[in-house]
Amino acid sequence: MEAILLYEGKAKKxxxxxxxxxxxxxxxxxxxxFNAQKKDTFSEKGRVNLAFSRYFxxxxxxxxxxxxxxxxxxxxSMRAKKVDIIPLEVVVRNFAAGSLCRRLGFEKGxxxxxxxxxxxxxDDDLNDPxxxxxxxxxxxxxxxxxxxxxxxxxxxxxxIIYSFMDSKGITLVDxxxxxxxxxxxxxILADEISPDTCRFWVKGTMxxxxxxxxxxxxxxxxxxxxxxxxxxxxxx
Length: 236
Ligand code: UDP
Description:
Elements: E1 5-8, E2 12-16, E3 22-27, E4 30-33, E5 38-41, H1 45-62, E6 69-74, E7 77-81, E8 83-85, E9 88-95, H2 98-104, E10 111-121, E11 130-131, H3 133-137, H4 144-167, E12 170-182, E13 187-190, E14 198-202, H5 212-215, H6 221-232
Antiparallel strand pairs: 1-2, 2-3, 3-7, 4-5, 6-7, 8-12, 9-10, 9-12, 10-11, 12-13, 12-14
């Protein structure tokens, strides 16, 4: 019997599973940037991003962070807790790059101490605008307590991944996280963590080993992801 598709996004398909509170997430091979205006397909992308996600989610689990991951099924799919995604993108930045430089004129690479945590609205039609707390107050997306919890979790996750990557000679410049609410109302980390959702620079340089290679046409995207995997000792 064919599994029922619950949702299809830019990078993932979500299917019903045999359990009411679990789903199967399939990672697609599409690479999109600039809110899907630039679109290509890389044959290995789903597999590669799932392998990175597995690596980072394992690291977070070892450090006591609760996430939606239950198990990995095959090269491009995983079993996860069913959550309602909170329509906010939580971005944590350790150094200025990307939209922060474009919007505020900050110099690329400027250290942000302590790390900056921002919220964006997950809404393609509005181009994922940045939000301040006051805006969120008028939306039904999250309460003040939930926002504070997501911020605290995001900063802790940042600390864990930043120090781990630093020990491998890689700088975590910034990253985007998404949280979801389980059927019993608990907020947990969801979505993925990969070089599609993080900026990684070779320490002491601004050499990108992430999606900027594709966004900025700087060369071979899959090759850069493989270089990062090699540094991490991750088999792709
Ligand atoms: N990011 C993401 N999905 C988005 C927007 C941003 O995963 O829809 C990640 C991006 O890869 C980077 C961080 O969030 O690691 C901050 O992105 P930024 O706001 O600088 O936007 P960009 O320059 O990617 O447009």
